[in-house]
């Protein structure tokens, strides 16, 4: 080969080597980092229909609740936002619990301290959502519940939604936090404040379990009840207008204690509630989930619950 020929060959080999190095660098920079193969999840058997962990009646502790940190420290492991799945079996129910809330911090601690172990004994999957009304305007329980349910449904395919006052503590874990597929279930049948008797047959306040598709069919709660009262009766009328009946578990175990409290500031009885209640039949299809407007100011995944701070406007 001529000198000229060697020169070209060297040039060629050099360029090829350079290209190889460049390709390697580019591959290294742009390729996905090596991830270890995810461990296959053990396939869990379905949880029993009746959880073996149930204890039946157990008096809730009503006063001097521990701090959130103390509750967290003694709790079974939860995922951020207060999500729990039973570790040893596949849950049969997955329930989002939605709490209308403003300025009841000590009630919330009492509630969380009681409800986490209670629900874990039922071996269900669950997550707790607190719909916290921002600002000083009149409280609106129905609208907050609509917001909480709508936000919860963005997160997961819950088989059950439970709307739950923060001050009600279930006394017996046989009262299952799951849903009937055809009708809403009124869980707070017997409340100590009402001498453990149903005050009137159509009552649907306190704690209600309802499948998401039924909640949507009812167009959720009315957004128009500002202040105390009426939104629960309107909700009950919606159920009956949709052809649903109220399911009630036996009074023997559908028992609750209500933390004793005064009427809150900003939640005086709504003087217009009787008038509004006369209009449920006319309004329910246009007032509810499909007319809901709000600003979600923050969504915080706390250790024991998900906090939704929401601006729902005012009257
Ligand atoms: C009854 C009903 C309740 C609701 C209410 C009328 C039962 C057992 N309870 O409860 O479901 O229909 O009448 O609106 O039937 N809240 C706050 N901050 C406030 C005000 C209210 O967090 O400033 C929340 C909290 O979750 C509370 C719930 O709203 O538990 C209901 O308010 P309440 O406890 O003052 O009403 P109460 O006990 O008369
Ligand atoms: Mn109350």
Summarize the structure.
This protein has 315 residues and is of the alpha/beta class. Helices cover 30% and strands 17% of the residues. The protein is built from eight helices and eleven strands.
Please give a structural write-up.
The protein has 315 residues and is an alpha/beta fold. 30% of the residues lie in helices and 17% in strands. The strands form two sheets. Strands 1, 2, 3, 4, 6, 8, 10 and 11 form an eight-stranded mixed sheet that branches. Strands 5-9-7 form a three-stranded mixed sheet.
The helix/strand class is alpha/beta
| Rg, nearest Å | 27 Å
The helix tally amounts to 8
- Termini separation (Å)? 95 Å
* Major sheet characteristics: 8 strands, mixed
What oligomerization state is this entry in? single chain
The helical percent reads 25-40%
As residue ranges, the low-confidence spans are: none
Q: How many runs of DSSP E, i.e. beta strands?
A: 11
Strand share of the residues? 15-25%
């Amino acid at each position: 080969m001529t000198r000229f020929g060697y020169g070209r060959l060297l040039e060629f080999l050099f360029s090829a080597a350079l290209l190889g190095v460049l390709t390697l660098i580019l591959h290294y920079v742009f390729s996905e980092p090596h991830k270890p193969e995810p461990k296959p999840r053990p396939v869990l058997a379905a949880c029993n229909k009746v959880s073996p962990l149930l204890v039946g009646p157990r008096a809730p502790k009503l006063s001097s609740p521990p701090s959130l940190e103390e509750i967290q420290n003694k709790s079974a492991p939860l995922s951020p936002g207060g999500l729990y799945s039973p570790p040893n079996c596949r849950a049969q129910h997955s329930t989002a619990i939605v709490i209308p809330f403003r300025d009841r911090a000590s009630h919330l601690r009492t509630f969380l301290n009681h409800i986490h172990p209670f629900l874990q004994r039922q071996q269900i999957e669950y997550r707790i959502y607190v719909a916290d009304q921002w600002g000083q305007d009149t409280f609106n329980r129905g609208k907050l519940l609509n917001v909480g349910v709508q936000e919860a449904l963005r997160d997961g395919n819950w088989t059950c939604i439970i709307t739950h006052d923060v001050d009600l503590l279930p006394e017996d874990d046989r009262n299952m936090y799951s849903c009937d597929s055809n009708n809403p279930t009124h869980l707070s049948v017997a409340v100590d404040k009402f001498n453990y008797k149903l005050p009137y047959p159509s009552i649907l306040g306190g704690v209600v379990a309802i499948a998401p598709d039924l909640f949507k069919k009812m167009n959720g709660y009315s957004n128009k009840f500002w202040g105390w009262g009426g939104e629960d009766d309107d909700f009950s009328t919606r159920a009956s207008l949709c052809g649903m009946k109220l399911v009630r578990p036996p009074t023997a175990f559908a028992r609750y204690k209500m933390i004793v409290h005064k009427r809150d500031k900003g939640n005086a009885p709504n003087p217009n509630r009787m008038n509004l209640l006369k209009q449920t039949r006319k309004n329910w299809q246009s007032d509810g989930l499909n007319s809901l407007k709000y600003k979600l100011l923050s969504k915080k995944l706390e250790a024991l619950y998900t906090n939704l701070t929401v601006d729902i406007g005012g009257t």
